[in-house]
Amino acid sequence: MDPVVSETHCFHCGSLVPKGVSFAVNAGGTSRPVCCAGCAAAANLILAQGLGRYYEFREAPSTPPAAARNWSIFDREAALRRYTHERTGGERDASLQIEGLHCVACAWLIENSLLRERGVTQIHVNPGTARAEVRFDPRLINFSRVLAHIQAVGFVPLPLSFSGGSDADAAERRAALKRLAVAGFGMMQLMTYAVSLYAGLMQGIAPELQQFLRFVSLIVATPVVLYSAQPFFVSAWRSVRSGMLGMDVPVALSIAAAYLWSVSSTLRGHGAVYFDSAVMFTFFLLLGRYIEMSLRHRSGLQHDALARLLPQSVLRLGGNQAERVTPDELRPGERVRLLPGERVPADGEIESGATEVDESLLTGESAPRLRGPGDALIAGTLNLSNVVEMSVTRMGQDSTLAAISRLLARAHSSRPRVADVADRVAAWFVVAVLLLAAGLALYWWQQDPARAFPTALAVLVVTCPCALSLATPVALAAATTRLARTGLLVARGRALERLASADCILFDKTGTLTRGEPRLEEVNLLDGRLSRERCLALAAALESHSGHPLARAFSHLTPAPNVSEVCCAAGSGVEGRIDGMRYRIGRREYVLQLCAAGGPLPSAADDNSHTDVALGDTVGLLAVFRLRDALRGDARETLRQLQGLGLKAHIASGDSEGAVAAVTAQLGEVGASSHMTADAKLALVQALQREGHRVVMVGDGVNDAPVLAAADVSLAIASGTDLAQVNADVVLLGDGLGALVCAVGTSRHMLRIIRQNLAWAVLYNATAVPLAASGWLEPWMAALGMSASSLLVVANAMRLVARPARRRAPAPPDFVGPVHA
Amino acid sequence: MNSIYLLIPLGLLLLALSVWAFFWAVGADQFDDLDSPGVQILLDDDRTPPDGQVDGSRDA
User: Fold this and answer.
1) CA A679, CA A698: separation in Å to the nearest integer?
2) CA A165, CA A50: separation in Å to the nearest integer?
3) What ipTM was reported for this prediction?
4) A:89-108 residues touching chain B, CB 8 A cutoff
5) pTM above 0.80, yes or no
6) Could you give the residue numbers annotated as active site of A?
7) Which of A125, A162, A566, B13 is most buried, by the most CB atoms less than 10 A from its CB?
């Protein structure tokens, strides 16, 4: 029953269906192939619920479902109190962060699927922030079932503890929207009065009517100045107090001066009014700020990276009973039992047992370390082989992991030196503007006192660095929007500027050019005694007890039941008893030791590009599974196009020469270094930077986090590790690399637009300031000119969004290289 | 000309009303998610799921 040899892609997750695996789902009457039991389960559930439309509307293939997890720990009273909030009437509210949520269809799927569970009364999933707010009745449905259901349809929920004020973003956005609305409505209304007043100045107007219109203007302008413009006053006051004059000082000054002068004119009954200028000015500035803020919030990646690296639950030993608790509940001095495959929940010391630990998170070294009694364990590292008991010394915010992520965060916040320079220049600019305005007022006071205030005000308004300050954020926002459509999330907008001028691109191999996880490519039956399905089930059952990275290749298969007497041999494989028979899986030599006689030795040997895993029983070898970390489907094409854009590509991998050579052989001309530790990669980046190159680093894992931080621009692949995501400038959401090319193209286009915008702003200021200073410009003309100039800048930036994406034909998600003959 | 003395206050009233309406909309989460509603109408199906499938979910 060999499936057709041609490449088939999974209906659910879009990845290549491995040879020898035949799962299918029934979608609307047609049978569609899926790659694994996990995908089959998720797709079946979705289709059975009548939510098959998800597949028509989703924007990208789904993330392959993670191995099912036991969520029951969240049903304990302590966890419920921590992660949910009880409402009057007994219902509970929970906030979940959802991984794998890409688009509106995903959000719709989760909402509708979950609403079909009895006891879930309300759910809203926001695709922008990947947050779900669920309300459920704990008497009808357990919290764990809500979580398990979300996982069943193919997403990973992460309960957020209720203490955190993570809604600060939402509050900020709402406040800004309200301010903007008041200023916008006010401006529209005021313009009608202002036009009447100006017409009146030219054609004549009844004095009482003029006075009436001015009073009405006063009424409309007051909330705009007092409420909408408040942030400018607050920020100006803060910058004055700190002794560093920011852009907000002349802004606040001109709004306040225009408003107060106009109020006094209105009350006195003579003199000019500038309500329109003040309000228009406020609105356009707020608009710019709002665009900038949405950009900042969009990333949605700011939440606690720490929580994701810690295990969901941990076995706490107390007295004579053991209890599963969340890592949050641990206290120093408590004892914890760690099973193989579990992450260490807190910093601590091994009390008994010895095991191999994957510390690549900290050291960048992927080779496991042996740790015995008395050795330190660090939170977030992975226990690979054996059961150990540890005592907790530090947890949560005190742990090493927390310290590292704080360090990384600081490294990032201190990076944009350009912004610092801009601020310092701005301070001088502000001083110059203020001096100029004061000097002009003084000058005109002696020449023509009536013109002194309007001139000074016109200069203040006209020099408002509005177009100047809008030029960059607006272009950034437009480019970000554009890139988001192609599956790129820009976490730090400034990075795009650097991306445009980059000339060197560094790739990590594993997880970046390749998928980063071994996939089952071929099943080779050596013995006719057992069927292919049985062999796969046996393998899945044994490997489910191993924490070894290769074991993940089997995690999507349905394991055989009745496994007992499991024992892991570090570095060799797993042995276990299934239905009375003893089986081994792992290295061929290790498996062959089970049958004294030894079986036929298959000829094929590892050639670095793939790994063979053997399965055998007491009689001999049963099957060999070929696992390969396949190249991403569009890796070759992407590299070629990037080189076409003038970027020098280089692969920096921690793997052996053979493994790297196997990859470069498929990629064509590209530089490559093997055996690179994190330090060596860092040194390479810094050396390139010293030579004057601008370096882009594309990575996946936590072990390149320091390298990512050092590069001019860092890109992370979303399927990579989570800490790296949070610390990268740009995150690739999709599974392909093709978006990289689009990112470079868009960033260069953006830079051109920023330059045009800046040139325009400078030109405008250079002509308008002398005009204003000489008294030619009325404040309203200045405000109008300023606004027109700002709008021009915005319109220019919008061209970035409008430009049709140059999409290539979608490449197959996986490219399995030519078989090494 | 006197109509202005009636119409402008009326306009102000309308202005206050629209600001209030906008504030209400912001407060009622209407601006929190601007992407979903537009697509939701395409996704939401009038057809009911096949019988017996409600609550038929299970953990994978």
Assistant:
1) 16
2) 37
3) 0.77
4) 104-105, 107-108
5) no
6) 508
7) A125
